[in-house]
Amino acid sequence: MVESDEIGTEARALLNQAYDGVLSTHSADVPGYPFGSVMPYCLDRAGVPVIYIANIAQHTRNIQANPKVSLIVLDRSVGDVQTNGRLTLLADAQPVSEDDEDAVGRYFSFFPDARRFHRTHSFAFYRLVPVRLRYIGGFGRIHWLSPERVLRPNPFRTEEERAMLEHMNTDHRQALRRYCEAAGVAADAGCEPAMVGIDREGFQLRVGSRVIRFVFPSPVSTPAEVRAALVAMARLGQ
Known about the structure:
The protein is α+β, with helices and mostly antiparallel strands and about 240 residues long. It is about 30% helix and about 30% strand. Strands 1, 2, 3, 4, 5, 6, 7 and 8 form an 8-stranded antiparallel β-sheet that branches. It has a 3-stranded antiparallel β-sheet with strand order 9-10-11, sandwiched between helices. The protein is globular. The termini are far apart.
């Protein structure tokens, strides 16, 4: 059981840090064949991936005909992709209403440039609700996992998270720079890091066009614990 808990944690960490993957749908034009496409995503408050796709896109037409999909995400931290961790989600694609301000707002916080897509085409949000996950953490470490072993809901309400993000981005920009410097992340020219997400195990900074994951020393469940973790991490970066 301990090993399974560790594997679930590893799989979740990969899902939290990847931000893009390969989405495979059932081809409507060539029945019986899978159709793959590169897809950015962010996690909603339940820890479920959310994507934003054009209504004219092939994968959207495929999803509308058959909502059963898979999403594979890769650990790109080391050079050999075959020895790195990877996670495959077998999932049901479910439409997300644009009235869902939490999921929509979170996605646009991670990917602000996506807001302009509506100017050229009609886009829609979908949740990829996992039914089973396959995690490979290296040679001989191959596991099927239930969603309950991987997904963790965010302990913070929408308003709590937004307040913490606004506070950090308004009052603690120097701390955000320290996190980046400590992690060896160079900001794009003219781009300041912005905190875009907080959950029980870490937070995300958007640095130019990139989203970078930072892990807390231990899980948090209250804003006070977030503050203590962020202060400690900023001091380590000095």
